[in-house]
Design brief:
Layout (H helix, E strand, L loop, with lengths): L2 H33 L3 E11 L2 E9 L22 H13 L2 E5 L8 E8 L9 H9 L15 E9 L7 E5 L7 E8 L7 E6 L5 E2 L4 H18 L1 H11 L5 H23 L9 H22 L4 H23 L10 H33 L3 H27 L9 H32 L21
Amino acid sequence: MNPVVSAFRRNVVAFRRNVLAVGLLLIPTAVVAHDVPASVVVQAFVRPQGQQLRVLVRAPLSAMRDVEFPVRSDGLLDLERAETSLRDAVTLWLARDIQVYEEDPLLPAPRIARVRVSLPSDRSFATYDMALAHVTGPGMPPGTSVVHDQLLLDALLEYPIASDRSAFSIRPALARLGVRVVTVVRYQPPAGQERAFELTGDPGLVRLDPRWHQAAWRFVRLGFAHILDGTDHLLFLFCLVIPFRRFGALALIVTAFTVAHSITLIAAASGLAPDALWFSPLVETLIAASIVYMALENIAGAGGVQRRWIISFAFGLVHGFGFSFALRSTLQFAGSHLITSLLAFNVGVEIGQLLVLAAFVPLLQLLFRFVIAERIGTIILSALVAHTAWHWTEDRWADLRQFDVPALDVVSVAGGLRWLMAALVLAAVIWLIAVNYRRFAAGGPKGPPYTRRPGPSGPGME
């Protein structure tokens, strides 16, 4: 045989083997990807009553893998023999992963009181009473023709508790049900309104009725982490530090910024800010533009502390709305302590800002002392910040233009003027406090008020 033909045949055989091996490797991956749902939504009601806490939970049956469900000869679910398999599914995929705490101790494993399947069109989980009546009521007729992976699994879990007045926490570690799992928990305390939580993946321990100090500590940590993760806020602080590298001068500037963003953050959380789709990209654009302005002012020669704190206050109002967007998904953990949590978030932000300032100030001092002249270094650093923030402004402006921003009318102008007047009044109050504080720190005016000292041309006159 021709050596060339023989080599060609060997290459063809090797190619076929490689294709077959790759195919065999891809088949299990495709099956696993098909078996694990891409998106799963779990609904749960939590209600303590007397010495028992009930959890009503609903999840798609298609997410309960590795459970054999009995089927009829036609391949449909055999409802007459499905009770044991349904309880096994609840035990393996729900009861073991829903951990409930009374005060701090973990409650024992729940009793699975009832299980049943429901059609996807069922709407009984709209309220707790409807869901309880549905789960404890009669199930589907045994002869109903249904496919198991198209059904919902409903269960009633019961936990023994000491008192329904205790503080309860829950950890729904249900992330393994799908690629993305969203758990909607509605807590109904014995007294008070229902609280809803939307949790993604494994959210960790969630306090359903937090004490004020528990909510405050959680939001202090959130504020601290947010200021360290927010690149735009860090650049804004960096622009503040470049021309004023003394903590005394920075104290008033940073305080004005903190007070301003606290005002708009609380206002936004209280529902006083616009909820239109265009508002968020508008604020993000203004935040980027504020960094550009601060950097250009540094290049042109920053004004005194008086001018800089007023500008910081004005831009702080805008940044406060930006903070509110970051808190939208976490205010659900505040419980009944909304204002306390918002103030705690601002405390965390302030701690983060002070930490950033403590790092920036000595670094800039060393840079301008040993590496580069102060004026040239200020221009170069500010130009780099302005360049970065300008690109952010362009990108965010492009996003903003995709929305229909309403034209100004009498109502919107009046609302804007009210915000402006409130900001000016508060700024004036802060200015008066700052002026009187400096006078007090300097020892105050010499001599009694309204007294003129003797001059060279004659006696003084009181």
